């Protein structure tokens, strides 16, 4: 069945979408000359390989792409042990270089680290290789990534990310940095005051939701220094992206306006969008300008004009008007008029404008967005002038239910992660088969693949897989692929590590439900007596993966990527142990067994969580201190440093003044476990113990009130956290393993000793 399916996929023509759709997108292409792109890729290889970059002969030749514009690279060997890489764009040449490094040299490049042991002589390319991607576009970013991950980034970090994009074949990144400076200028020119604007903008860590009209003011004010700095950062980002041949997606006007507009234009037609996500109107209830009001074209036009003056354009713009907020009318005529007006505000300024829409609204509000409503919205602009991101297609593909978005082109995207949580999960089967099914769909309008995680720097494996799929013409043999992945990531073939990855592949990475794409572990949630502890795999799998990684540590302990994974997989196992202890505590409490509540609670609060904190603190990627230091380093005054510190801490914990979106963007950082999660669990156990002693019931409300004080204390504790690792990862992991690995004789003995001590 599967083999037959594979065969038809192989034989399927690439460009299955209608020619007219294709033609409207033909101007979306690299702007820079082949020469500029060639230099950009050579520079990238120097950053990556130093002197060894000289062994690569890189050329960009755009005619390699052919009439269908599908990007292509070729690899061959040249005399003198050199490797020739020719790409139809900078991105194609960078992708070809990384493919060579992977398949011929066993190298690996990821967010958490690189493995770049090059053989002293580059292996020859035995027969020249030509690879063409079936996807016109490989898109990257969610509008939320700019807040959950990029918010505190400087140019050093951005440069690294853009290199990562190019090497992994991404040619269409969102470029959302530095837009507030333009909004500010536009609104002041319309007569708004500085204080009206400072009431409007959120703080840096919440800009994504300010831009979408979900909230305003919270975490602000945003200083003019911040806006100017972001503007110069954006200039560098765009220049580098374009020099590599990427097509950058800029913002456009979606209709959300500051309240000050109502003062300057009292007769303007607006809708109040009402409260969003447990916020009240102090920070929510933004105004949406009626797209049919003439002011809409004025603001939209001014914004796009100003932006193009500063940033240039690649003719594609993102605007999301109804993200998690339903329109006031479901009348199809109204919805078409709305999207027509939004599109017009771009197209009047840039006749070649293409409007990129995140398809999240269709997933988030399926009751509102019935076929007639979706069709009306998408048909408000001519066919081929909207590209929809099928945002969470590995799990909830929308093209299936909408006759391929009623003829508008779409990009098949893997969302994978909500809120940038740590936690091992993913849907490898959806990723591996989904894009090919979508291309084969009757009258498919798919024009690319993409990555749309809300937050990055987690689960490297599934992003590596998705990026490869973007350049692949067939699904990949996952069993074979994961062994290769393990070998490259650690720089050697290690049987235990391979076995661990095989287990992860079929357990944590084979989860298909929406629920599983967000970390709901009791560890990172406010405690209660009815917490959801469901996971999508057999928990013994994560312990077995841990055991295998533990066994691999004597051989792989010098590899930085291994140490990261050892910590990450141990972290996942300990997270499961927290669930197990939670059960023990809950059951004992139900039986009125005070002693058992105290012992199990004691192990959890006084040992397990603190050991997890120590483990995380031993690796640079898991430090609260780094997140906070990056935030503070963006500040230009002491007051700003305090505000950014609050922004950074609030986003990953309370998310709002009152815990409005509590723990949505939870992280497992050294420092955070100790001073936030452990404090909570300590109070919970204390409540239960007091209840049992006094013969009272547990009142969640009382607990919530008390725990909120601790949660706020964490945000304002003013404590400095280490931004470089402390302690030896291997030693710490070993100690924890001996104490806690389930069902081992030693583990039981150690736990018994621990109980005795407590
Ligand atoms: C680019 O490729 C085309 C077609 O393969 C070839 O004719 C042309 O000479 C190449 N240009 C350069 C500068 O190498
Ligand atoms: C709205 O939320 C703010 C911030 O938490 C709070 O100060 C205010 O009292 C709330 N207003 C109402 C009407 O509940
Ligand atoms: C595909 O498009 C053709 C031509 O427009 C149409 O006749 C056919 O019904 C469509 N097929 C499906 C399955 O929608
Ligand atoms: C996938 O690769 C594995 C390991 O190399 C091999 O045993 C298996 O037969 C392959 N599966 C298919 C469908 O080719
Ligand atoms: C795994 O690596 C081997 C050796 O480089 C290669 O032949 C094979 O195609 C790779 N398989 C996959 C699925 O990547
Ligand atoms: C994922 O799970 C499905 C069924 O739940 C199974 O058929 C499939 O083989 C699994 N895939 C992997 C890669 O383990
Ligand atoms: C989980 O895996 C273990 C070990 O392989 C096995 O003994 C147990 O029956 C499995 N549990 C379930 C619910 O499948
Ligand atoms: C790790 O590096 C140290 C110091 O270079 C070396 O002594 C040790 O043998 C290495 N261990 C492994 C397993 O390669
Ligand atoms: C950029 O940020 C990183 C991480 O916060 C920091 O280590 C680095 O020193 C910064 N670089 C510059 C040039 O400020």
TrEMBL record:
Its EC number is 3.2.1.50. Coiled coil: none annotated. InterPro entries: Hex-like_dom2, NAGLU, NAGLU_C, NAGLU_N, NAGLU_tim-barrel. It comes from the Eukaryota. Residues 481-739 form the Alpha-N-acetylglucosaminidase C-terminal domain. Residues 1-18 form the signal peptide. The keyword Glycoprotein applies. One of its GO terms (molecular function) is alpha-N-acetylglucosaminidase activity. It is an enzyme of class 3 (hydrolase). Keywords: Glycoprotein, Glycosidase, Hydrolase, Signal. Residues 40-123 form the Alpha-N-acetylglucosaminidase N-terminal domain. Residues 138-472 form the Alpha-N-acetylglucosaminidase tim-barrel domain. One of its GO terms (biological process) is system development. It catalyses: Hydrolysis of terminal non-reducing N-acetyl-D-glucosamine residues in N-acetyl-alpha-D-glucosaminides. It holds the Pfam family NAGLU_C. Belongs to the glycosyl hydrolase 89 family. This is Alpha-N-acetylglucosaminidase. It comes from Hymenochirus boettgeri.
């Amino acid at each position: 069945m599967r083999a037959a399916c594979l065969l038809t996929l192989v034989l399927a023509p690439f460009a299955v979408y209608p020619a007219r759709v294709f033609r409207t997108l033909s101007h979306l292409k690299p702007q820079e000359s082949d020469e500029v792109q060639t230099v950009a890729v050579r520079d990238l290889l120097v950053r990556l390989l130093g002197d060894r970059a000289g062994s690569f002969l890189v050329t960009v030749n755009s005619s390699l792409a052919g009439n269908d514009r599908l990007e292509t690279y070729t690899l061959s060997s040249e005399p003198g042990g050199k490797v020739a890489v020719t790409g139809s764009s900078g991105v194609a040449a960078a992708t070809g270089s990384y493919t060579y490094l992977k398949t011929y040299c066993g190298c690996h490049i990821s967010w958490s680290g690189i493995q770049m042991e090059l053989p002293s002589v580059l292996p020859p390319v035995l027969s020249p290789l030509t690879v063409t991607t079936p996807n016109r576009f490989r898109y990257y970013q969610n509008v939320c990534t700019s807040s959950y991950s990029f918010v505190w980034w400087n140019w050093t970090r951005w440069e690294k990310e853009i290199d990562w994009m190019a090497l992994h074949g991404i040619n269409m990144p969102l470029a959302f940095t530095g837009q507030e400076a333009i909004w500010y200028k536009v609104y002041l020119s319309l007569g708004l005051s500085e204080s009206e604007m400072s009431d409007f903008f959120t703080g840096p860590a919440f800009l994504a939701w300010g831009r979408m009209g979900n909230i305003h003011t919270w975490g602000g004010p945003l200083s003019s220094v911040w806006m100017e700095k972001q503007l110069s950062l954006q200039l560098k980002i765009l220049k580098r992206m374009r020099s590599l041949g990427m097509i950058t997606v800029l913002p456009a006007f979606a209709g959300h306006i500051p309240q000050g507009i109502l003062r300057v234009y009292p007769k303007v037609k607006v809708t109040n969008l009402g409260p969003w996500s447990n916020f009240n109107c102090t920070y929510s209830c933004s105004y949406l300008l009626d797209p049919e009001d003439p002011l809409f074209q004025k603001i939209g036009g001014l914004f796009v004009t100003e932006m193009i003056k500063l940033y240039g354009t690649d003719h594609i713009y993102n605007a999301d008007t109804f993200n998690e907020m339903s329109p006031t009318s479901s009348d199809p005529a109204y919805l078409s008029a709305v999207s027509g007006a939004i599109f017009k505000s771009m197209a009047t300024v840039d006749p070649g404008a293409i409007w990129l829409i995140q398809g999240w609204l269709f997933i988030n509000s399926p009751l509102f967005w019935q076929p007639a409503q979706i069709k009306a919205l998408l048909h408000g602009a001519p066919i081929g002038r909207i590209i929809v991101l099928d945002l969470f297609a590995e799990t909830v593909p929308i093209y299936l239910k909408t006759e391929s978005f009623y003829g508008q082109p779409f990009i098949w995207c893997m969302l994978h992660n909500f809120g940038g949580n740590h936690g091992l999960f993913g849907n490898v089967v959806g990723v591996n088969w989904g894009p090919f099914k979508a291309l084969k769909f009757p009258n498919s309008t798919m024009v690319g693949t993409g990555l749309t995680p809300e937050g990055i720097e987690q689960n490297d494996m599934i992003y590596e897989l998705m990026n490869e799929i973007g350049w692949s013409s067939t699904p990949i043999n996952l069993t074979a692929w994961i062994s290769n992945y393990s070998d490259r990531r650690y720089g050697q073939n290690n049987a235990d590590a391979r076995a661990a990855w095989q287990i992860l592949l079929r357990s944590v990475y084979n989860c298909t439900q929406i629920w599983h794409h967000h970390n709901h572990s009791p560890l990172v949630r406010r405690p209660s007596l009815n917490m959801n502890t469901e996971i999508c795999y057999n928990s013994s799998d994560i312990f077995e993966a841990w055991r295998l990684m533990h066994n691999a540590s004597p051989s792989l302990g010098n590899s930085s990527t291994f140490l990261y994974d050892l910590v990450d997989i141990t972290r996942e196992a300990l997270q499961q142990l927290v669930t197990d202890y939670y059960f023990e505590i809950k059951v004992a409490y139900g039986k009125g067994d005070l002693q058992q509540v105290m012992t199990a609670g004691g192990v959890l609060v006084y040992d397990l969580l603190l050991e997890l904190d120590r483990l995380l603190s031993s690796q640079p990627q898991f430090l609260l201190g780094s997140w906070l230091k990056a935030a503070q380093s963006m500040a230009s005054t002491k007051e700003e440093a305090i505000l950014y510190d609050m922004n950074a801490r609030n986003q990953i914990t309370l998310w709002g003044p009152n815990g409005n979106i509590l723990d949505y963007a939870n992280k497992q950082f050294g420092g955070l476990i100790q001073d936030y999660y452990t404090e909570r669990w300590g109070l919970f156990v204390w409540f239960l113990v007091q209840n049992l002693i006094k013969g009272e019931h547990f009142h969640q409300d009382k607990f919530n009130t008390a725990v909120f004080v601790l949660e706020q204390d964490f945000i304002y504790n003013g404590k400095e956290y280490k931004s470089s690792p402390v302690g030896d990862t291997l030693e710490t992991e070993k100690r924890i393993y001996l104490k806690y690995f389930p069902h081992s004789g030693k583990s039981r003995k150690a736990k018994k000793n621990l109980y005795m001590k407590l």
